[in-house]
Fold this protein.
Amino acid sequence: MTKPDGLNSFAMRLPELAVRALPLLQVVGSVTKTAHQLGVSQSAVSQSIAELEKRLGVKVLRRGAQPVQLTDEGKLIAQYALSVQAAEENALASINDLRQNKGGRVRIGSSGPSASTQLLPHVMKRFSRHYPGIALELREAQDQEIIAALRRGEVDVAVVPGLDGDEEFESLPIACDRLVAITADDMNLPLHMNAEAFQKQPFIMTKGGSEPLVRKWFGRSDTDPRVDHSIQQITSILAVVRSGLACSIIAELALPEDLDGVKVLPLDPPAPRSLFLTRLPTTPSNSAVTRFWEFAEQEIYREE
């Protein structure tokens, strides 16, 4: 069957007035009443429908019938018009929700437990109280993976260490943290742990986000860490430390409140680190992201 010229892209070329008129015609059965409801003349409706039939090469009205009825082809166009109208109304409603902070989604990246357990839950909880219609999604991974996800647009904002001054990103300082030593309570160790002291004890290398910082700290003393165990989960690290089998270094903010059987010691030299809420300086994926950033900024300065 030969298709009329341009039928493959007819959705872009249908006369708008005819498309608006057919669903009404199907209900009221009168060109005159349809034109009145649309606020145009009867002749304008008739001419637009005639143009539609010419372009498609089919009849869309059963002329002579009273009330006016649509052909099967006309009913298809009317159904198409109703679906377009519904999609438009849904889109406008969603945009209005976004504009009024009643909808949208914010994808938040976290580089580890310091952010996921200590920093973000507080901000996310308060934000959700103010904007219950905005969905918050949390994704946790190591520093470089989260930064890469930020670049790829897979997360909208992220809490990561040490990006202040990086012109690629826009950052807000959100917290100060430090690396600390953790040992069993009954271990007899110096009050300040240096790299040499760690060489004398079995050591757990964290496989979480702090590993590069731990290795960098050892490097400041021209020492390679003695790695007897490699563990990612903090609960597992603490269990091994508590048993007296090894000591470790982790970020202080990542520690849980219950440290029964575990002693926390400062490092010598100290190993501070700053955490930043970070985003790319581009137009956000939706207005909810802007609202979350502004809210987080207010929370940060409110607590200073």
Summary: The longest strand covers residues 170-184. The chain has ten helices and eleven strands. The radius of gyration is 32 Å.
